[in-house]
């Protein structure tokens, strides 16, 4: 390692992490892996391929910490570790793609490809500012290992930025970790990582609150430990009289969980009794797991009175992410409620490190659960019609609520979040079932769409081909899949209705021989009180507006415009050489050897104006045609007819107008055309000769021909047009 790329502290951290990683991966590494990885990292550091990021974090140290955390928090995996260590070197092109696959195999190359794609999206601030956010999550969903790596990478980053001088960066990273990475960790059952991310997020965004809760927990630790010892003493005595092999742990709730409870209960920490939970972990054979857990349950409930309403049986039916455990709340000494979690060593391992990381664990049938989870995530992402924050809100809503278990008439079991309706269930089974759902039969009784499902219900769905989703259905559902599908369907139907309304207007105007101008129809829409074009045409299709009334209003506006403004057609404007059949002897151009006053034509293929770089071309008819040097035909002319070219430049005389064509694109909005034409009309020595605009799905595209004196005036006009609200781009046409 070269000293200049690592501080003394980083060098020590690098060496310690590397040694720790070697120890953790000794059972999964291939012969020669260590030597080759060490050689690659050393060479890349010497060639400065491990440059610090914009926040000063050293990627060489960060990647080693990430690989080590992956092994410690989840499990050692050779391909994932190598992908983490080589990712930055592939990004900086120290390692070529072909070399990567040749030396390390297709699977590692695929993993790094996914990480590179995520990196590209993040460089565009995907997770917070654009629709790339959804693409980012879809990239995660392509390979579950990419999700795991990114979650662990974020955990290491969060650990590294405590007391970082860039407070805004720390706040942004913490915020994103809480709304994106913690829910993803929860979905994968990575509860330890989820809790640590949430705790650090609270610490970095609300340090005073975090510190106060941590201080109070520390003050009460001695009392809490003494109570736990008192509580578990009789349990140990009873369990020791059985053949069970077990261990008992006392676990304090995370600071973030306590903070949430304080907010909900509007209480102080001294009056929250379930600050901790007792966990009994049994070493059982696979076939005896459930019976051993229930034996422990019977012993505990003989000693302490259980609260039936707070019992959670995830032994019989595990959670969607594979979590298995038996939770009971009992009345302990000192009149305090205590939560007890009973599980086996296998269950505890999956609870701590996640189902996805342990799908090869003997006795775990989790691949179908994993596939179902991934399909659900993809469906949420691909159908979401709302922005990133609403998307994550929906995801969180699904995962943090309790679950209900519902049966079909055939006995198939489905899990939905607590509060799910009959309509949610229909969409959960199949999208088409939800789209045409009219109600259902629950436990033999007919129920409406808004019926709230309860665990144990047997549900049969009724459908009708005439049924379609309504916007008010959104109030009846809680699952993100149902909400997104309803929004998508309603949006599509609205667009179809608006298109029909637009066709009705166009057809009626054509019958009455009225030319439909975009600027004028926008004025009509605004005058009639509609906020959007879609709302207006929806009303037309629904018959709320008479098309004849629209035509009358349109003609009234056009008539007023004729009375108050001088209307001039394109034919009335005099271009310099507007017709290729005419010539000019204007001395605005100097052609050849300082010759003025000769006839020439301004080529229509590029429409040069005063100030453009131009050249002359002697055509076959002997007429000099003037082209811009960036004319689409310029290269062809130069290559094939160099002997016909003649030097041309503009003289000092200005005064006439030239025709220039502008291409404009933007968001369709009421008044946008009026704003564009208003700017042009206010420009000195500039006139609008023609305008043609088309609109499709909320986006408009237009072509403007303006009369203008030179390139300086044209560039100034383009800058002003770009400032119009809704205009995305303005370019001069070549």
Set down the secondary structure blueprint.
Layout: H1 8-24, H2 33-46, H3 59-73, H4 78-91, H5 97-104, H6 106-123, H7 126-129, H8 132-142, H9 144-160, H10 167-187, H11 191-205, H12 207-219, H13 221-239, E1 246-252, H14 255-265, E2 276-282, H15 289-303, E3 305-306, E4 312-313, E5 326-332, E6 336-344, H16 345-353, H17 367-383, H18 388-400, E7 403-407, E8 413-417, H19 422-429, H20 431-435, E9 437-442, E10 445-447, E11 459-463, H21 480-511, H22 518-527, H23 533-542, H24 547-564, E12 589-591, E13 601-602, E14 614-618, E15 624-628, H25 634-640, E16 645-650, E17 658-667, H26 672-682, E18 687-696, E19 699-708, H27 711-722, E20 727-732
Parallel strand pairs: 2-6, 13-15
Antiparallel strand pairs: 1-2, 3-5, 4-5, 5-6, 7-8, 9-10, 9-11, 12-16, 14-15, 14-16, 17-19, 17-20, 18-19
Helix pairs in contact: 1-3, 3-4, 3-9, 4-6, 5-6, 6-8, 8-9, 8-17, 9-10, 9-11, 10-11, 10-18, 11-12, 12-14, 13-15, 17-21, 21-23, 21-24, 22-24
């Amino acid at each position: 390692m070269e000293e200049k790329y690592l501080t003394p502290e980083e060098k020590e951290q690098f060496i310690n992490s590397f040694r720790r990683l070697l120890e953790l991966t000794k059972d999964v590494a291939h012969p020669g892996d260590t030597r080759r990885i060490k050689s690659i990292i050393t060479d890349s550091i010497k060639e400065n391929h491990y440059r610090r990021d914009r926040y000063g974090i050293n990627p060489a140290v960060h990647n080693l910490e990430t690989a080590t955390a992956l092994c410690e928090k989840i499990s050692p995996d050779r391909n994932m570790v190598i992908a983490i260590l080589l990712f930055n070197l592939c990004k900086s092109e120290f390692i070529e793609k072909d070399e990567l696959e040749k030396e390390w195999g297709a699977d590692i190359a695929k993993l790094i490809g996914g990480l590179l794609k995520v990196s590209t999206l993040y460089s565009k601030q995907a997770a917070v500012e654009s629709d790339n956010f959804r693409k980012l999550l879809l990239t995660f969903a392509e390979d579950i290992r990419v999700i795991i790596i990114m979650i662990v990478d974020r955990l290491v980053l969060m650990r590294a930025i405590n007391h970082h001088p860039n407070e805004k960066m720390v706040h942004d990273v913490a915020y994103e970790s809480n709304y994106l990475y913690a829910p993803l960790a929860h979905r994968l059952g990575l509860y330890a990582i989820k809790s640590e991310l949430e705790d650090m997020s609270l610490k970095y965004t609300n340090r005073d609150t975090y510190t106060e809760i941590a201080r109070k927990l520390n003050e009460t630790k001695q009392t809490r430990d003494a109570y736990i010892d008192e509580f578990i003493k009789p349990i140990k005595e009873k369990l020791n009289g059985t053949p069970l092999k077990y261990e008992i742990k006392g676990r304090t709730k995370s600071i973030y969980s306590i903070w949430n409870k304080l907010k909900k209960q509007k209480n102080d920490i001294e009056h929250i009794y379930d600050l901790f939970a007792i966990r009994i972990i049994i070493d059982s054979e696979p076939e005896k797991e459930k019976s051993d857990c229930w034996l422990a349950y019977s012993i505990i409930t003989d000693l302490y009175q259980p609260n039936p309403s707070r019992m959670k049986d995830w032994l019989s039916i595990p959670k969607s992410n594979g979590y298995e455990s038996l939770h009971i709340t009992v009345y302990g000494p000192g009149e305090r409620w205590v939560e007890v979690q009973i599980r086996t060593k296998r269950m505890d391992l999956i609870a701590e490190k996640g189902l996805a990381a342990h799908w090869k664990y003997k006795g775990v049938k989790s691949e179908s659960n994993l596939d179902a989870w991934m399909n659900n995530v993809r469906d949420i992402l691909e159908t979401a019609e709302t922005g990133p924050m609403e998307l994550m809100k929906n995801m969180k809503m699904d995962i943090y609520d309790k679950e209900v278990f519902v049966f079909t008439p055939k006995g198939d079991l489905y899990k939905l979040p607590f509060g799910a309706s009959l309509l949610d269930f229909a969409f959960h089974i199949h999208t088409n079932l939800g789209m045409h759902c009219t109600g259902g039969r629950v436990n033999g009784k007919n129920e409406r769409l808004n019926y709230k499902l309860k665990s144990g219900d047997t549900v049969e769905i009724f459908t009708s081909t005439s049924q379609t989703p309504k916007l008010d259905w959104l109030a009846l559902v809680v699952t993100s899949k149902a909400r997104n599908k309803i929004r998508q369907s309603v949006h599509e139907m609205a667009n179809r209705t608006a298109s029909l309304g637009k066709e009705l207007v166009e057809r009626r105007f054509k019958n009455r021989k009225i030319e439909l101008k975009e600027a004028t129809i926008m004025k009509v829409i605004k005058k009639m009180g509609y906020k959007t074009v879609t709302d207006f045409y929806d009303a037309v299709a629904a018959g709320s507006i008479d098309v004849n009334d629209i035509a009358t209003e349109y003609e009234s506006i056009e008539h007023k415009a004729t009375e108050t403004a001088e209307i001039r057609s394109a034919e009335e404007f005099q271009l310099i050489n507007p017709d290729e059949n005419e010539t000019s002897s204007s001395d605005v151009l100097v052609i050849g050897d300082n010759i003025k006053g000769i006839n020439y034509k301004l080529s229509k293929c590029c429409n040069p104006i005063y100030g453009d770089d131009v050249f002359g071309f002697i055509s076959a008819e002997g007429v000099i045609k003037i082209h811009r040097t960036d004319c689409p035909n310029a290269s062809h002319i130069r290559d094939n007819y160099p002997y016909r070219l003649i030097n041309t430049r503009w003289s000092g005389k200005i005064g006439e107008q030239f025709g220039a064509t502008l291409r404009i694109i933007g968001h369709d909005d009421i008044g946008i055309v009026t704003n564009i034409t208003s700017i042009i009309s206010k420009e000195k020595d500039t006139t609008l000769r023609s305008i043609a605009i088309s609109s499709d799905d909320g986006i408009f595209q237009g072509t403007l021909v303006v009369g203008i004196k030179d390139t300086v005036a044209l560039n100034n006009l383009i800058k002003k047009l770009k400032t119009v609200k809704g205009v995305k781009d303005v370019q001069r046409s070549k």
